[in-house]
Amino acid sequence: GASVAVAAVDLGATSGRVMLGLVEDGRISLLPAHRFENRLEQRDGHLSWDIGALWAEIRHGLAQASVLARDQGLPGLSSIGVDSWAVDYGIVGPGGEQAGEVIAYRDHRTDGVADALAARVPRERQFALTGIAQQPFNTLYQLAAEDRLTGLPAGSGVLLVPDLVGLLLTGERRTERTNASTTGALLASGDGWASELLDAAGVDPALLAPLIAPGEQLGTVRPGLARELGIGEVPVVAVGSHDTASAVLAVPAREEDAPVAFISSGTWSLIGLELRAPVLDEAAREAGFTNEGGVDGTVRFLKNVSGMWLVSEAIRQWEEDGARVELEGLLAAAAHAPADRFRIDPTDPAFLAPGRMADRVRAAATVLSGDDRFPSTPAELVRCILESLAETYRDELTAACRLARAPLPRRLHVVGGGSLNALLNQLTADALGVEVVAGPMEATALGNVAVQARALGAIGQEPGGIRAVIRESTELEVFAPRG
Ligand code: LFR
């Protein structure tokens, strides 16, 4: 039988899941316990997440995961770990009760806020302190736009989404380090908050819970909840709670491949290099790169590129308009659409907000060749998005290597749901002239499970230990560059 069973709660912008991770003989296998939808909604005047609904799905998923573990002949779950998208937070009162909605990072409340804050702390200084790219949605700017922080009772707090789930599970309040880095208020060294930035945003540092690192135990499931779910008072272990941190931990690279080049491909495409130290030069800031905190003190030097969001939002528009569209058919049609007709810039913040995405992409497309003024069919529009993504990957990976003074790597690892997109993988290999290694698709859940398994002693502590287990656990597909 398997040696341990752990539950990974993984919340994405469009869907969430609870996975059972079985770790045995140096391999991880994942069994889906529960999948559910997540979506943006206008609530209380802002684009928000329905945390109450997510919490109900998580509880159901954990109960299911425990049943699945017992079906495998195991006593139950040995631990639980939680990750989600970054930057968003909830406000909690002194007793841990949620105070107001969890507003989503794509909401318009941060429009102009980064500029206003830059008037108090120059952009150069912010970057030198934190190494974080100044995206409009950084937690720091969301907090600066926040009108709910004044007059909070003593003992209130601000918790990032996975930490909020951790509080609901255990009653403990911590700020997990990898996700803390995405706030734009953590020092690049990771050694605490940049108080100068919190001041400028009007945030009382007492609102922020103490830091916790992946692998440390947050607490145990509250007795009442454990009884309700039938799961026992199991430990909740901090993982790379930023989904991208967990995903990049599960890149199946070898130690000698350093610096590892990756794309974590989901709603966003996060493209860059895994480094030992941040790149804090002005040139990196000007190029829009960020230095996010990874598991085991690694740094993800990367660029945020709108990824499959562009496609999923376009599909949402076509469906609203009454068309029946499914991704697979659309990608097959896009593979046969004429090449190199149109381009967009998938790093343009104009694509951040939801709504009428097909219209917006069409209006933004520039003409490369042919007689048409814009992409007119869904297949042409998707082809335009994918070719633009592949070219952007080429440009951004080249820039990352230049800025980090690293050679262009021999292979690029693509992980996450987007790694299933064979057309995009091939276009990327062709644009870069390097091999693209696709998979694992469930990188985030694997990274989450792996940190728990290591904390339990089921994976060794040696450097590269987790990635060796990931390589044993997954099938990869290689795309060689053509031409
Ligand atoms: C991916 C991700 C990105 C982050 C964006 C917003 O799911 O976590 O890493 O930049 O969502 O949180």
From TrEMBL:
SUPFAM superfamilies in the cross-refs: Actin-like ATPase domain
Carbohydrate kinase FGGY N-terminal domain span: 7-249
InterPro entries hit by this protein: ATPase_NBD, FGGY_C, FGGY_Carb_Kinase, FGGY_N, Rhamnulokinase
GO molecular function terms noted in the UniProt entry: transferase activity
EC number assigned by the record: 2.7.1.-
Pfam families attached to this UniProt entry: FGGY_C, FGGY_N
Family from the record: Belongs to the FGGY kinase family.
Protein name: Rhamnulokinase family protein
